[in-house]
Amino acid sequence: MNSLSKEIKDIFIHGEFNFDEGYLEVKNIQEQDFYNAFPRKKYESSLYEKGHQFGSIKIEDIDFIFEDYHQLIRYISSDNEEKTSEEVVVLSQSKNLIDIKNQYINLKKWIEFFDFISVHKYPKSDRNDSWAYIFFDKKSKNTSTVLDFDIGEYSEVELREAFTNISDPSLLLGSVLQEDAHQGEKVSIMRASLIQMEEENNIGFLEFIKFSNELLNLFHINYETYLRSFSFEDFIKELEEDVGDFINKIEEQIQGFYIQALAVPGAVILASALRVANKSLNLALIFSTLLAFFILYRSMTAKKKFIKRMAENTITRLEIYEKRSSEINNSYAKDAISEKVKSAKNSIITCKDDSLKDIKGLVEKTVGIFIMYVISAVVFNSG
Q1: Could you report the per-residue pLDDT of 100-112, keeping only the tens digit for each?
Q2: What is the pTM for the complete model shown?
Q3: Neighbouring residues of 319: CB distance < 8 A, sequence distance ≥ 6
Q4: How far apart are CA 207 and CA 154, in angstroms?
Q5: What is the pLDDT of residues 79-130, one digit of tens each?
Q6: Rounded to the nearest 5°, which phi and psi values hold at 362?
Q7: Where in the chain are the domains?
Q8: Phi, psi of 46, rounded to the nearest 5 degrees
Q9: 55 — phi, psi (to 5°)?
Q10: How far, in Å, CA of 295 to CA of 326, rounded?
Q11: Closest CA to 261 of 297, 220, 222
């Protein structure tokens, strides 16, 4: 949005002006002052008559003057944010400037809110002044609920009253846009609350935008009901399953590394032993040893990265559980879940640290034994 220039505001607050046959006429104004307010570069129809200290301009060229609220709301709905002025004149109401900044922002938020929670939105005409929102809720008595908004179906009085008294839907919008573990449930509950309000009161889009507090209160009641029905046992079971999966996968990684740690050096030892038996020990043993060390090191690095990543992912899921528990009013359940999460985090960290130590220790022992073998093979072969 933009603010009108000081020169324009002075004309509408202190100046002499009139609207006549599609023109804005400004009287008793200096030429420079008139063109400062309505420069020809922006307003092509701007014309000043020097002999009469009189300036005029076509109303259709002025983007902050509207015939009525139908035209104003159509203009706002057409995504003209950069062109829309914070102050406008609505001729059907008065000739004075009206500050519409808050109403403009709130209407845009309402449109964003309905766009977000509706299942589908479709235009009802080529003009951007009528559309329909579709909502589904399995608990509703109807298979679907359609909320229409057609500017042309409302009277000027209805539009003016609704626009003037439009409520701020920031809390509603914040409730469904907040990205947390319950966002999906919140959107569904908000949708169900809106359908319930529509069915009980038979109201449409224009009525909803005046009753954000009523819809918010109904949403809170329904959301509280959802939280109370939240299964504590299922919550704990899901948490324990995540921790169990982590431990099982870590054990698989450890067992796999044991096999690799023994298989790779073992193959080299076997091959070199045959060469020793044939008195043909040569540089192949050295290269085989280096290759075995390289494979063992790469395997160890990969396993350690996997274990660390698994631990981080599991802890992140546990933190999500902890955030979800903050919305539960049952203090016993909340404390129990918090204790479970804390214990699970400690178990994961301990398991991760022990696993990394086991892998490191196994590598050190394997390398030590392997070096002893190589030294022995060289000594005995030289003898």
Answers
A1: 999 999 999 998 9
A2: 0.57
A3: 341
A4: 11
A5: 777 778 899 999 988 888 999 999 999 999 998 998 898 888 877 766 666 7
A6: -65, -40
A7: 6-99, 102-228, 232-382
A8: -65, 125
A9: -125, 150
A10: 47
A11: 297
